[in-house]
Design a protein that fits this description.
about 130 residues, four-stranded antiparallel β-sheet, two-stranded antiparallel sheet
């Protein structure tokens, strides 16, 4: 049996600056209402984290580590006014984004993100998922 000790270096101290963005992830919707959180510096980094978590969930299912899964996640931003986390969105003069994928498809790092996602998901045999073989 493992006993986990919280490392004091990673505890948030009163008044300490924190990341203004984070990924929330639920690997099995319905099994818990609690999310797993990962602080990120940018929306693009958040997409990478979500893609990694999604690929890992699929990998576990593919290799029969999990019998099934129904995951969900997103990016949140810290709102200074309400002093709470809210779903990420971005408003510019010309556009409004509230979907990380839509934003990342047109961002400066779009090609790098697409390559990263491709490398992750090519490890998953999606045909077996469709045919119910996993």
């Amino acid at each position: 049996m493992f006993h986990w000790k919280v490392d004091e270096r990673y505890e948030r101290k009163e008044g300490e600056n924190m990341s203004k963005l984070r990924v929330w992830w639920i690997p099995q919707a319905g099994a818990t209402e609690d999310s797993f959180y990962v602080p990120v510096e940018t929306v693009e980094e958040g997409k990478k984290v979500m893609d990694m978590l999604a690929a890992y969930d699929a990998y576990q299912r593919q290799n029969r580590i999990k019998p099934d899964y129904c995951n969900c996640g997103g990016v949140q931003r810290w709102d200074e006014d309400s002093q709470d986390w809210e779903d990420w969105y971005m408003e510019t003069e010309d556009d409004y984004f509230d979907d990380v994928d839509d934003y990342c498809e047109q961002c400066e790092k779009a090609d790098d993100l697409e390559e990263f996602t491709h490398e992750l998901f090519k490890q998953i045999d999606w045909e077996n998922f469709k045919n119910g073989k996993n």
